[in-house]
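Here is one chain, start to finish.
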Amino acid sequence: MVTIKSYDSEEKKRKKKEVMDFLKTKTSPELTHDTQSQEPAAPVVGDPIGKGQQSAMLNRLLGKGSYESFDMRCMVTGQFSVGKSTLVKLLAGDIILDGRQPTDGISLVEGRCGLDIETKEWILIDPDSYNALDVVYNKVLMTSLKEEESELTEKFIQASDTSPTGYAKATLSSLPSEKSAAAQSLPPKKSSNVPLTIKQMGKKMRTRMTKEEIRRKMEKVLKSGKYKMKVGRLIFWDFGGQYVYLTTHQTFMTFRALFLVVFDGSKDLHEQVPDVMCFPGQHMTPTPAVFLQYWVNSILTYCKVVYAGIPKILFVATHKDKVPLENVETRREELYSGIEELFKDHEGKHHLVLRPLIFVNAKDQADPEIEVLKKTITELTFDHPCWGERMPNACVPLELEIAELVAEGKQIMSLVEVKELNAISEVSVLSPEQLTDFLHYQHSLGKIVYFDTPQLRDNVIISPLLMVEVMRSFITGV
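Its structure:
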C-alpha cells in the first residue's frame, strides 16, 4: 500500500525536507547510491513454460510486439467529512480505525486491490507481497501469445483528438496529452526539444535493465505463477475535501479515470453545512447540493474530452447507519431524485451515473451495498475505453528502469536524465517523439507527473506522492 499517512515522525521530516529542497532548487537530486537487495527464492510451481514460449515472452519485455494494459484510477472526491477515506479503506481491505482523520491533500492507495480480467472478481492484494516491478512484468506476461497482434509494434487502440466519440488507431506519437489550451499557446522552449547525445548528457545515468537482468526477473515471475491470473490494477486517489486543497486537485484529474463523488446521505441535499464559508466567488449558502455541483463541474472542466461520456461520475451516499432502518429506502429515493433534479439541465448529464442508487454504511464490511458498489465500479471500469487498450512493448524497458529508481527511493528526475536513461538502454531506445508521448501517457495513468509546458517540462516527478507533498507545501506552508 502506498499512502502519505503511514510515515513515522523521522520519515515524515525527511520527506518534508526533500519537498522543501525541491521547491528551493527546482533541480533533480543526485542519484541515490546503488543498492542491491537480496531477493528471496520464488516458489517453484508446476506446469513449466516451454523454452519457445519463454523466448516469445522475453521478446515482449525487450520491446517486441504489444500488450493489453489494465490500469484504472478511481478518483474519490466530494465534500469534507463525508467518509471518503473510510470508504476507500473498506474497498481496499484496510482496517478502519475509530475516530476521524482528515485527508491531508490527497492520499494514494496503490497495490491493494484489482479486478480479475476473466471473472471480473474483486481481488484484494496482500500489501507485503506488492512489488511495483513485478506489476510491470505481470501485465506484459499475462497477455497470451494468441492475443498478441504481431503487426502492433508502435500502434495501439486510442482515440484521436479530432474524433472524441469513438475509437481510432494512432501511433505512439499521437497520444492525447493533458495540456490545457493556455499551456499549448505558450511559446515553446526550444532547448528542451533538442535531442541530446550521450556525450552532451555527461553519462550521469546507468542502465539497470540489461537483457540478462530482464530475463532473470522474468523467470522469477514465471516461477511464481502470478502472471497466470490476469488481474488489472485499481489505484485509488482519495481527495481531501477541505477548501484549502480544492485549487490543487485539478492538477491530477484525467479522462483515464473513474470518479466517485461521495456525499452524506443522512443530510438533506439543501441543508446548510454549518460553520463553513461558501466557495470563493460564490454567494450561495453552502449545502451538499452545492458541493455536488462543484465537484461535477470541476471534473468535467479539467478532464480532456477524448471519448463521449468519459469520464464517468458515480454518486455514492454514505452514513446509512444514521438513518432509521425503516426509512432507508425512502431516503435513498429522495436523495437520488434530488440529484436528478439538480442536474436535469446540466450539459454533462451523460457523464453521470445515477443507477444503481448506492447508499452505504462505509464502516460496515458486511453491508450488502458495498458489494453493489464494487460491482458498479467493476462494470464501469470494464466499460471504460482505456481499460485493456493495446500498448507497445517498446516502452516496457524504460518503465522498468523508472520503477527500479522509485524502488531505490528516487522521486524526481530531470528531463535530461530521462533522455539519457532512454538513450543508454541496452534493450530498447525510444525516439524523441515516442519518449515525449511515453511521458504523457504515464502521466495520464498517474504513474508519473509530467507537464509539457515551457516552465515545467525540464523535470519529471517519477513518484506522484512527491507532487502531492509539493502542492500541500504551497498551500499550507509546511
